[in-house]
Amino acid sequence: MAPFCVEGREGVYDYYDARGVPYSRCGKLIVATDAAEALKLKEIARRTARNRVDDLSLLSGVDGVALEPQQSCTAALLSPSTDTVYCHALTLAIQADAEAAGAIVRANPLDSPATPFRV
């Protein structure tokens, strides 16, 4: 499953741009606060490398604090391609694509008399 995530990572930005969906490639810093957590971060880094995720960086605690001075950590994992997206705009873009392909989108299908609902 992870290879599909890697392949789709860049495609999603093309989709956002084509549909005018606001987003920010802000990155993410995952921090370890003790030696046990630092070992877990190393395992995550190994696993992501096996899954062909090529943009994660394992950082020392000093380097992690340099990026986020308000954090205290013993190690960190930097994911620069993590983003935030305006989910309402994304939902509307997907809805518009679905409707353009002939789908009928209903906001509250359970409230429709055409849709029986039994408990």
Automatic annotation (TrEMBL):
Coiled coil: none annotated. One of its GO terms (molecular function) is (S)-2-hydroxyglutarate dehydrogenase activity. Keywords: FAD, Flavoprotein, Oxidoreductase, Plasmid. Its cofactor is FAD. Residues 2-108 form the FAD dependent oxidoreductase domain. The keyword Oxidoreductase applies. Belongs to the L2HGDH family. This is FAD-dependent oxidoreductase. It comes from Mesorhizobium sp. WSM2240. The lineage of its organism: Bacteria, Pseudomonadati, Pseudomonadota, Alphaproteobacteria, Hyphomicrobiales.
